[in-house]
Write a structure and sequence with these properties.
Helix content is 28%, strand content 29%. The protein is of the alpha+beta class. α4 crosses α9, α10 packs antiparallel against α11 and α11 packs parallel to α12. The longest helix is centred in the C-terminal third of the chain and has 21 residues.
Length: 491
């Protein structure tokens, strides 16, 4: 499976519906249009890449991310409809907007659809809109192959005629039901409608008749509208705009105090804020302020927000400022122990230092090294953002059982001259930095090999050695070449 294909603007189809008789619904369906280049679900990646132009960007399939992005689009479409829903499939790829009587403010259906199209185009999506009487018909028309028109309006009562020539899979049927229909050579909706209705459930299951009646409008289809989140925010507008940093800082502190005061009774802490500055020319500048743990410390939030503000280079006066809470969580209440005060305070101070560094330097500038579960030493660590928590969750407890590793790993292994008792045996003497080192103790070998997918094969025998001077080194011998290398130093 593939998702989020295509460079911006991405392709989407939209379907709209409303019942012909009662005129109760108007719905917009939004779905990715990767089939524009002949790409189908389940197709091999190499085959799909050969069909698409080089400008298409490919990303891993992330169903949770796709659903969340659809939800964001649904929240934004609330300006066109009071009811916006995701389609009911297990992996939704469409939005259904109930636009009944919503065309009053747009002087007709076509201007409304053009406004919806412009809204998506502004956010980088090309769209196809299909307006009809039922949700099932809108979904089918939006997904029909070889669509050349970007806006399809089906007159009231004509949705059945529009559905007849379409393939049966556009009734949102399961793959098993579609395959069974194809076995009986039923491939179009008009062929399905010609069959006796009484025989359909026993031969093809209850789903077929339900989906057919929903598309035809014989039974209603309930839509579960997405709830638009109610943001906790505070704003301030200046008239005329100001350019005094002291005034801006004072108002920021006042807005933060209002947010903290509103959340304190519910014991909910702020974990991420979004600060939006509207400039005199109506241009907007924004920046996030995030913490590793939710907090209601007004002093700490003011300090971090002002640090982010100092990094902005504003060439215009500020007309308005808005603070919005984009992520919050219940405050943690922990029972303190008698002798762990210093440890708890140290962890809290360390998080405070990190948050101040991020506020002053930016999140991308504050990095830390994390271990990775890889046997090859060169690949056993990664440079990640200090706020990336996924790497810690992936690590788990596996790193507590790793073999001993040197404190200092050379960027590239250095070849050294080694003397061993027998070929392939442990080292007894080696030369490093123009010095001869006598090996007092050695442990090994620890064999490390990599697979063919890494390119050049890596086959090494590692030895941990202690010299007569008390120094510790990490040596390895390449199998086949029988050459010795120094890879790490313990002190």
């Amino acid at each position: 499976m593939l998702s989020r294909l295509g460079a911006k603007p991405a392709s989407l189809e939209l379907g709209l519906f409303a019942p012909a008789e009662r005129q109760q619904f108007r719905v917009v369906a939004v779905t990715p249009a990767v089939k524009r280049y002949g790409v189908e679900p389940g197709m091999l990646l190499a085959e799909a890449q050969s069909l698409c132009p080089s400008r298409v960007r490919w990303e891993p399939y992330d169903p949770a991310g796709d659903r969340e992005q659809l939800r964001r689009l649904a929240h934004g479409c609330s300006e066109f409809s009071p009811g916006v829903a995701l389609d009911s499939s297990p992996l939704p790829d469409s939005l259904l907007l109930d636009v009944t009587d919503c065309d009053i403010n747009y002087s007709g259906e076509l201007p409304l659809l053009q406004a919806v199209q412009r809204w998506f185009l502004h956010r980088g999506y090309r769209t196809v809109l299909a307006l009809t009487d039922t949700a099932g018909a809108a979904w089918a028309l939006a997904h029909q192959p070889q669509t050349t028109e970007s806006i399809l309006i089906v007159p009231p009562g004509r949705h059945v005629e529009a559905l007849r020539p379409l393939p049966v899979e556009f009734l949102r049927l399961s793959p098993e039901t579609v395959a069974l229909l194809h076995q009986f050579d039923v491939r179009r909706i008009d062929q399905l409608m010609a069959l006796p209705r009484a025989d359909l459930p026993s031969r093809f299951g209850e789903e077929l008749l339900r989906r057919l009646d929903q598309a035809l409008g014989n039974i209603p289809e309930l839509l579960t509208a997405e709830r638009v989140p109610k943001w906790i925010e505070a704003s301030w507008t200046w008239e005329p705009p100001v350019d005094d940093r002291l005034v801006v800082q004072t108002i920021l502190s006042h807005l933060l105090e209002r947010i903290v005061r509103s959340l304190a009774p519910r014991q909910i802490g702020v974990q991420q804020l979004w600060c939006l500055l509207t400039l005199e020319s109506a241009e907007a500048r924004h920046f996030p302020v995030a913490l590793s743990q939710p907090s209601l410390s007004l002093k700490h939030w003011i300090e971090l927000t002002l640090l982010h503000l100092e990094r902005l280079n504003l060439s215009e006066r500020i007309a308005a400022i808005t603070l919005r809470v984009v992520r919050s969580a219940p405050l943690e209440v922990r029972q303190t122990r008698l002798f762990d005060g210093n440890q708890a305070n140290g962890e809290r101070h360390w998080r405070t230092v990190l948050e101040r560094l991020i506020g002053r330097l930016g999140e991308s500038a504050v990095r830390r090294v994390r271990l990775c579960p890889d046997p090859q030493p060169e690949w056993a660590f990664a440079d990640n953002s200090v706020t990336d928590e996924t790497a810690d969750r992936k690590a788990g407890d596996v790193f507590h059982h790793l073999p001993v590793r040197p404190i200092r790993l050379l960027r590239r292994p250095r070849e050294v001259e080694v003397v061993s008792v027998v070929p392939g045996g442990p080292p007894i003497r080696f030369w490093w930095e123009q010095r001869r080192h006598e090996v007092a103790h050695s442990w090994g070998p620890e064999r490390i090999e990599t697979g063919w997918w890494r390119g050049e094969d890596v086959r090494r025998d590692y030895y941990l050695v202690e010299t007569s001077q008390g120094e510790w080194f990490w040596l390895f011998r390449t199998l086949g070449e029988e050459r010795w290398w120094l890879h790490g130093i313990f002190s």
